[in-house]
């Protein structure tokens, strides 16, 4: 098995943490915000139904579920790239 460089190891940990955030924290956050903004609009299972639906659609490679789950990682990477190109001289 190939050992990762310290930089690659750091990047992999960052990616896994941010994708984990998108996978486990964002669905309940979306549900909570939806309750505050829209209110209780259906009797389709609540938080668990929404979370399992997002997970299933992520596995099915639905673009919206992929965007939701990967958004923390993509946002951080966008900031990092913009910082890099802005300060590169």
Question: What does this molecule look like?
Answer:
There is one protein chain. The protein has a domain at 26-87. The chain has helices at 6-24, 26-37, 46-59, 63-87. By secondary structure, it is an all-alpha fold. The model has no long low-confidence stretch (mean pLDDT 91).
Radius of gyration: 17 Å
Uncertain segments of ≥5 residues (pLDDT<50)? Answer: none
**Category from helices, strands and their pairing:** mainly alpha
Task: Classify the oligomer.
Answer: single chain
Count the beta strands.
0
* Percent strand: under 5%
Q: What composes the largest sheet?
A: none
**C-alpha termini separation:** 38 Å
**Rounded mean pLDDT score:** 91
Number of helices: 4
Order of helices and strands: HHHH
Query: Percent of residues in helical segments?
Result: over 70%
The best one-word shape is elongated
Helices and strands in order:
Layout: H1 6-24, H2 26-37, H3 46-59, H4 63-87
Search tags:
89 residues; mainly alpha
In short:
With 89 residues, the chain is an all-alpha fold.
